[in-house]
């Protein structure tokens, strides 16, 4: 079973890059098994459709434009994504991601499950760092991704708790 954790976003526009920053955070702080791929999808959207089609399960992390406080996380399932039932719009590359999922569905290659963890941003200012509320949200959302992976049957552990490898 292959699971894809897909971080979307533009790292040149502050909080818009949250999904990409989250994938980097996961790589630095969590041990995931080889059947889990952590993908910096950036703003590529439909260009990464083949990765989605290779996955049995998809966990997408992106910012959303919704009422709420910065750093608040909303969880959406596959049907909400496909049927355009989201009460909010995703970030500017949303069209590519939703089109990618719809195209995969038409081709009969949609993952068995898909989850969007959408985070409310504080800033869309130009810059390569996250706002303080979203930087503080990184470990929280990483733990949510880890819980999603564990629910799918993957063994994930914080790197501080991961077994030490051979020395030498």
Question: Major sheet, described briefly?
Answer: 6 strands, mixed
Mean pLDDT: 85
Report the C-alpha radius of gyration, rounded.
15 Å
Looking at the structure, what is the overall shape? globular
Element-level helix/strand string: EHEEHEEHEHEHE
Q: Could you name the CATH topology?
A: Rossmann fold
Domain module count? 1
Architecture per CATH nomenclature, i.e. the level-2 architecture: 3-Layer(aba) Sandwich
Can you put this structure into words, describing what you see?
The protein has 168 residues and is of the alpha/beta class. The protein has one domain: Rossmann fold, CATH 3.40.50.1450. The chain has five helices and eight strands; from the N terminus they run E-H-E-E-H-E-E-H-E-H-E-H-E. The strands form two sheets. Strands 1, 3, 4, 5, 6 and 7 form a six-stranded mixed beta sheet that branches. Strands 2-8 form a two-stranded antiparallel ribbon. Helix 1 packs across helix 5. It is globular, with a radius of gyration of 15 Å. It starts with a strand and ends in a 10-residue tail after the last strand.
A few lines on this structure:
It contains five helices and eight strands.
Primary descriptors:
33% helix, alpha/beta, 168 residues, two-stranded antiparallel ribbon, Rossmann fold
Topology diagram in text:
Elements: E1 3-8, H1 18-29, E2 30-31, E3 36-42, H2 49-54, E4 57-65, E5 73-77, H3 78-82, E6 89-90, H4 94-106, E7 113-119, H5 132-151, E8 157-158
Parallel strand pairs: 1-3, 1-4, 4-7
Antiparallel strand pairs: 2-8, 4-6, 5-7
Helix pairs in contact: 1-5
